[in-house]
Specification:
Length: 389
Amino acid sequence: MTTGAEPQKFLGRVEFKRGLEGAITNETRIGYIDGEKGWLVYRGHNIEDLAEHSTFEETSYLIVYGRLPTRAELARWTDRLVPARPIPGYLIDVLRKLPKEAHPMSALRTAVSILGCHDPLADRADIANCERIGVDLIAKMATITGAVMRIRNGEEPIPPDPKLSHAANFLYMCTGKAPDVLSARVMDANLVLHVDHGMNASTFTAMVIASSLSDLYSAICGGIGSLKGPIHGGANEEVMKMLLEVGAPDKAEAWVRTAIQEKRKIPGFGHRVYKAYDPRAKVLGKFSQRITKLYGQERLYQTAKTIEELVVPALGGKGIFPNVDFYSGTIYYSMGFDYAMYTPIFMVGRIPGQVARVMEYLPDNRIFRPRAVYVGDLNVTYVPIEQRG
Ligand SMILES: CC(C)(COP(=O)(O)OP(=O)(O)OC[C@H]1O[C@@H](n2cnc3c(N)ncnc32)[C@H](O)[C@@H]1OP(=O)(O)O)[C@@H](O)C(=O)NCCC(=O)NCCS
């Protein structure tokens, strides 16, 4: 029995948008997106500039500490990251025991949790401790990902090579071969492009967890869990399936025409924030052209480019342009990564952004506590179980 009470009696009439669209959570100096202009900025620097001139090491320092490092600061930063790369044997043992069919993102999440269990200082919620754990996880995420990939493929994990850059070492730990210069460069730029992206769902998840003064391991586990979702980290897989289905540039026109007629969403296009060209897609498009050529997969790039040239004139007026996922899949596919590894690579890039935003929020922390509009019943009579049938 219910009263059917009107919800607005209790909360007042509340205007809200689902998914917290447009809600402001905090002030930040870390990053800025102007979706109308197609800008993405890290600490004041345009992303195109960073992707062209910077490295993952430099950009992660920039995002965490607020400015590009001097030569001496970069050397000290590298001297912290490199020794933090190896992962302990007990962690590799756990990764080996996971079911083969476990999603690699679930394995990443588990790995961070295990590291947290073994850290006796994990729960000290001060900024210095947060930074200590953050730096460790920025360094280790690539090693964890490499180990997860190799164990999945029935291969032995490869220990990090301290002589290689973060990106080159990541590829080395995945493939067992020191990468060529172009592949290392493209992976480096790709990680830079993924470092931060405003209050995206996974970064916000990490911040919400940390705002209860829980430990950073828990926050990053949550960040990984959120990124795992197919409408967050996994759209590039759909792009690859589309490109393989289309098969060749001369098949693109008929495919796109049908997709538009049927009002289907074309993977890798459109974005909640960008209503102009996603600047990350521009950079990745150029790298895709070079890397697909290197690996003999030019047709993939040409098919993607043709689709772009057909979709933009048709849908650009509605603000539909390629997003970051449109070309990233062609790069990973050419390099030989399985679809399931695409989102873990995203996480290797995104971890500095999550750490930086948690660290920025912590000194003036306030627990996140939004409300929901209650539209349910009130004063429902309790019926004893014997009488409920
Ligand atoms: C990213 C995405 C979820 C953003 O969604 P959103 O902000 O809620 O936008 P909407 O779904 O409301 O779309 C607005 C309009 O653009 C159209 N549209 C959006 N994305 C489209 C796409 N990829 N292809 C064709 N049309 C698209 C919608 O059909 C809608 O048209 P309508 O107004 O005529 O109904 C959506 O663009 C999408 O699903 N893209 C494909 C998946 C993808 O690439 N995701 C990765 C994002 S980084």
